[in-house]
Automatic annotation (TrEMBL):
The chain crosses the membrane at residues 91-109. This is DUF676 domain-containing protein. Keywords: Membrane, Transmembrane, Transmembrane helix. InterPro entries: AB_hydrolase_fold. The keyword Transmembrane helix applies. The keyword Transmembrane applies. The lineage of its organism: Eukaryota, Fungi, Dikarya, Ascomycota, Pezizomycotina.
Amino acid sequence: MVVMFMPSQVGATTTTPLPYTANPLKLLVYDAVLCLSCIRYLPDILMPLRPCYSGKLDELYPSRGNLTALTIHGVLIVYQIAFILSLPALFFLPIYVCILYIASVFILNNKICAFLNGRHRFLVSHVPLPNYGHESEHWIFINGVGVGQHWLQSNIDRLSLTFGRKITGVHNDTAGIIFDVIQCLIQRCFCYATEDVRDAYVFVKEAILNTKYKKIVLILHSQGAVEGGLILDWLFDTLDEKALGKLEIYTFGNAANHWNNPIRRYTKQDQPEKCIPHIEHYVNSEDFVAMWGVLNFMKIPGRYLGDVFIRQGAGHLLNQHYLDTMFPLDHDQKPMLEENGFLEQNIKVIGCESTFYNTDFKMAAKTLRDNIGESALKIRNCSRLWRYRNGRTPDR
């Protein structure tokens, strides 16, 4: 099986409005149509159901916490679908009745979601780690659609096991899968910052400005990437290039409609250097959320910065469908396997006209093959995140 790989773009000269600067109402209509066109893949958010290689850390493993979360989500899905189907009837009711009805629906929805969300904005991984000596690094994770505190804790514990670092999770509260998807569209079309976005922005900025840390690694999943994109745009406005140079970003199932990374300077060889030195996006080809996110908008020249790795397969859950397939653990949840099928797969270089320093994508493929070799052109040769496995640190 071949993994599609699109090297990072650098920008394009075009008068077409960017995906987040056009008329927000038109964007919302476009996004709604785009989302509906992919609706048949919605059940694939939870598919495949098995296997659960990470045991109780996987979202669909039959543990008490997971079964509770899945039951509540099932109730919310039925509740929210019933609400949406009832909306046409409101045209025949007095306005005050409509307001009371909608308000009561959202109040009850929040009450139900409280069982998932808990009370804490920030969580820290509980995994005991060897002393790898990474005190100068700060790893931060923002979760995606449908994740309560139980799944967030599982996410950061799984990331900690994989990369041998303490992970701090910033909780993006869930309102139920359907309402979360709607919130995604509103956030990215109107650049709307919810409370968790504002809290995360302050947290990430403080980490970057803290002289104790030499490197900030931001891992984003699903809707968390929409929020991370908003945070990143704010950071470009408020921090200098030296501070931004400490940041690295890795996303999974990215739901954002753009990903910026301005050029800060050109080298003597006239090659551009970016503000954020390393950005990578990992995505499943049949991930419903990614279909109206990274998989759609990466086709626009110059508007999705960072290397994109596209694995052939379905699933949206971070642990079960991304980490278990791309960064699997050894037996009994020991550190990550040094050898696995995903990292050994050959890559097929794809791109658009602004990919790889404004060169043709065929030239990008030729450059990679010349540097690495035809037979050795695999994921492990291009993935920086893989080089962090089991507490390691990538070469400069």
